[in-house]
Amino acid sequence: MKIGVIADDLTGGNGTGVKLTKLGYNVATMVFYDHLPSSDQINGVIVDTDSRYVKREVAHRRVKTVAENLKKWETDIVCKRIDSTVRGNIGVELDTLLDELGTQAVAVVVPAYPDSGRIVSGGYLLVHGVPVQLSDVGKDPVKPVTESHVPKLVEKQSKFNVANIGLETILAGKQAIESKMQEAIDAGARIIVPDVITNEDIDAVAGAMAELEAYQMVPTDPGPLTAAFARAFSRKRMKDKKIIVTVGSVTSNSSKQLQYLKDKTNLRPIYVDSKKLATVDGVWDEEVDRVIALAKQEMEKQDILLITTDAPGSEILDLKTLGAQQGVSQDALAKRIADGLGKITRVVVQESKFEIGGCFSSGGDVTASLCSISRAEGIQLLDEILPLIAYGKFMGGYLDGIPIVTKGGTAGGMKAIYTSVKYLEAKF
Fold it and tell me: What pTM did the predictor assign?
């Protein structure tokens, strides 16, 4: 898959390019706008038009040339790199690019860069909490920025209709954003400016864009949206690759992490009855078989499969009492629960007709059982995602070579599981 970025500035373009290299692209920056890489090893190209401060007609000519070349290069994703403080010829460059790409092209303008203190709220671009026109770029000696409301700024510069998507929709998640984008497009908008205040908002916007397959969506941003869209676009076209998330820990922290994951991905969890696993009779087998069958059905509909004992309203089991009733120790019942989750995960992965992109396991007991039941020799450790959250691959056994992320049951903040899943997706 090829991705092309039209940048109005060299250093800014390089910043976007570095983000793409982290996704696995072989990226080159072209310093001459009328050139594309000759090497067939390059699948990501940044073309510097050096057009931020030139006259409109010059910006038009350069962007038109690059757009024509990118079409000849058979680019899958075309992006427009803009300044995070909305300096430059944004309007004319977008007009030119959309004209070249055709009537199904729609630009999504997100100057927000949360990690650098740039956010968009109510349509207004704030730089470290200050409206952009009141920041240093408002005093730019060449082209000062005099408008902080991004939709208005773009409307003044572009011939196309512009729509804004408010924060209430962004916070409602990917499906709500997708619906609002479709509504805006149906109403005639060719440029959409969503509010964005966090990196997770950017992920949600990118995910919604990837769902709108009838259109050529053009990320227009300083880099974060381009990277997120490239990941979401690839993920959408690799929908047969699944991620299995197994969580046995029932703590307030893990519950918050799971809720955050559910809110951001709109997935439907598969709940395991831990009380039925805390048995030494046939009830255990019945519950394991039930969940395996349900999981196989859900894999037809979901790319991220969450298997967990942390059901709404569930209570921590009194394993000591349950053990006494069954004539076994509480440790034995705890292992039965972990083994149940381990077997469910192993069978679902092993018998899946879809390719498995990776597993996530929370809790040492569950992870140990998964390794044991899958007959793995161990886990080849490759990276640390967050403290106490490791990335590696199964060594040997039924799941040999499959990527896995392991997390301590109480480890990580609210975003820990979501971040881990996104990490696995990026590894695709």
Answer: 0.71
